[in-house]
Amino acid sequence: MSHSATRSTGPIILFDAECVLCTTNARFVLERDRKAVFRLASMQGEIGRSLYLRHGMDPRDPTSLLVVDGDRIRRDSDAVLTIYETLGLPWSLVLVLRIIPAALRDPVYRFVARHRYRVFGRRDTCWVAPKEYMDRIL
After folding, report:
1. Which of 44, 37, 56 is nearest to 14 (CA)?
2. pLDDT at position 87, please?
């Protein structure tokens, strides 16, 4: 039985499928999310684009990755920490970073996000998940 058949709800990670850093992180999450908690949607796809727009962000120039969990939206460093905390040990140890106020964490996150293409590179085509994870891609 596929993961999507057993879990059609749950948090959605919205990410940039042209960003090398973002797609590396997406694959990292897919490989370590053993309970298949997360689903992923790229901002270049129809579902991801509509979710970005619904939450007031321009999918052509996003300022953050988003984690959408029902009515709850996490963005910036909170989204990243939520993802890694959910993956379990050892990744959940990042929760110690919560002692740093978001007002200090988020500017660092936004700086990296603004410069992600220049520092990490940009793909010529959107990343496509390996076929064993396709049931978790929206």
Report:
1. 44
2. 94
Half-sphere exposure of 76 (CA within 13 A, CB side): 12
Q: How many CB atoms lie within 10 A of CB 115?
A: 11
Burial of 132 (0-12, 13-18, 19+ CB in 10 A): exposed
Give pLDDT tens digits for 5-48. 334 578 999 998 888 988 899 999 999 998 999 999 998 899 99
Where in the sequence is the domain holding 131, given as residue range(s)?
3-136
Quick check: pTM over 0.70? Answer: yes
The number of folded domains in the chain is 1
* Distance from C-alpha of 81 to C-alpha of 117, rounded to nearest angstrom: 22
Alpha helices in 7-115 (DSSP H): 20-32, 46-54, 76-86, 102-114
